[in-house]
């Protein structure tokens, strides 16, 4: 017998729309017995919420997120508002709601740990939106690593560069203020994706050596027009050592001119190498030492129905999947955890706390000028 899960969504921007699309499509995509209902959306005013509900297909709307998280008919709260998330998440948990919160989970590690503890004590399912490992290509890459196709892993390089703040004349916003985004700028915003991806592929990081830089030190204030100080980093570089002995590097930038969604990684093993680029998210490059020397080299593997989750979106190879599909997979996994169809939810709030601890170690390393252990 099918059942429903009624979702409430906080935020109607870029990520809010992505989650709305996922709610409307996930049931049909994966043939779920449990169907999500786009029940209520909350934004900053009644007028904007009404417009968002009409545009994104929600039955109800409110200009007060507190009304959403306390509504007895809501089963799951999705938080897509800008930081800080703490109050919204804790109120939702206190009202017995399952929570899917966009990353970064919190402005500080202490806040993230507080949310994790609250979720565990309440016995609700809580997930953080580190969605990029949900691509069929990255799922396949992880499968190849686990199957030993690369032999012993010796190094990882992960990069996440975008240019949305490359223009120094763009006004300052919440991302660049410590009171809202925290001490980590690009390190927290984009670095969380690199850290999450690295953890998912190879396991936890043990220690880091880091360097950060504020490239555009001042930006115009949108209210006064005067230039004010940018309070957190535009770019960060990390050397990392994993618990399993693998070494690697992470580089993130929000001022990386020319890059739009430049999340990429290279995993090198004794028998092969995998290269992935999110701007070409429906393929991987694979090299194997076992290939015939006459034709040996990196080969492009287009992702298709033979790879994880792809076939649920499209039965034909070569057509590809998109960014919004990763959110659909994410919502599928969230529903499966709530219904008990899986006991292996990734990433949950504990995984989010781990990401925050790596960021803390990186910030400590910047100040101390040495390697720092995670946690």
**Which word captures the global form?**
globular
Order of SSEs, N→C? Answer: EHEHEHEHEHEHEHHHEEEEEEEEEHHHE
- What is the domain total for the residues? 2
Could you estimate the helical fraction of the residues in percent? Answer: 25-40%
- The CATH superfamily of the largest domain turns out to be Dihydrodipicolinate Reductase, domain 2
Strand fraction band? 25-35%
Q: How many H/I helices?
A: 12
| Average pLDDT, all residues | 96
**Model regions low in confidence, pLDDT < 50 over at least 5 residues:** none
Counting helices, strands and paired strands, the structural category is alpha/beta
Give me the CATH architecture of the largest domain, please. Answer: 2-Layer Sandwich
| Strand line-up in the sheet with most strands | 16-15-14-13-7-12-11-8-17
Task: Quote the distance from N terminus to C terminus.
Answer: 45 Å
Q: CATH fold name of the largest domain, please?
A: Dihydrodipicolinate Reductase, domain 2
* Radius of gyration over all CA atoms, rounded: 21 Å
CATH top level class name of the largest domain: Alpha Beta
Quaternary structure classification: single chain
């Amino acid at each position: 017998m099918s059942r429903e899960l009624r979702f409430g969504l906080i935020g109607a921007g870029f990520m809010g729309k992505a989650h709305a699309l996922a709610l409307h499509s996930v049931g049909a995509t994966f043939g779920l017995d449990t169907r999500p209902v786009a029940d209520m959306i909350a934004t900053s005013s009644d007028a904007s919420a009404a417009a968002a509900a009409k545009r994104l297909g929600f039955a109800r709307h409110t200009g007060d997120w507190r009304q959403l998280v306390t509504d007895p008919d809501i089963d799951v709260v999705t938080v897509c508002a800008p930081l800080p998330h703490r109050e919204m998440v804790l109120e939702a948990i206190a009202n017995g709601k399952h929570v899917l919160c966009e990353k970064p989970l919190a402005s500080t590690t202490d806040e993230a740990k507080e949310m994790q503890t609250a979720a565990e004590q309440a016995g609700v399912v809580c997930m953080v939106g580190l969605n990029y490992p949900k691509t069929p290509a990255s799922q396949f890459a992880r499968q190849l690593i686990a199957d030993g196709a690369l032999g012993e892993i010796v190094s990882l390089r992960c990069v996440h560069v975008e240019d949305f703040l490359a223009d120094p004349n763009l006004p300052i916003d919440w991302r660049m203020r410590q009171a809202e985004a925290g001490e980590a700028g690009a390190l927290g915003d984009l670095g969380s994706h690199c850290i999450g991806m690295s953890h998912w592929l190879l396991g936890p990081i043990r220690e880091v050596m880091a360097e950060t830089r504020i490239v555009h030190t001042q930006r115009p204030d949108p209210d006064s027009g005067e230039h004010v100080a940018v309070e957190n980093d535009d770019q960060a570089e990390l050397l990392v050592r994993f618990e399993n002995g693998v070494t690697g590097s992470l580089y993130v930038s929000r001022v990386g001119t020319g890059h739009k969604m430049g999340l990429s990684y290279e995993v090198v093993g004794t028998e092969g190498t995998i290269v992935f680029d999110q701007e070409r998210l429906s393929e991987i490059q694979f090299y194997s030492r076992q290939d015939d020397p006459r034709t040996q080299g990196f080969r492009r593997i287009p992702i298709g129905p033979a790879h994880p989750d792809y076939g649920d979106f499209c039965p034909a190879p070569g057509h590809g999947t998109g960014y919004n599909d990763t959110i659909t997979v994410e919502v599928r996994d969230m529903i499966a955890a709530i219904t008990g169809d899986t006991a292996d939810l990734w990433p949950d709030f504990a995984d989010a706390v781990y990401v925050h601890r790596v960021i803390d170690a990186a910030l400590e390393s910047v100040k101390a000028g040495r390697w720092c252990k995670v946690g």
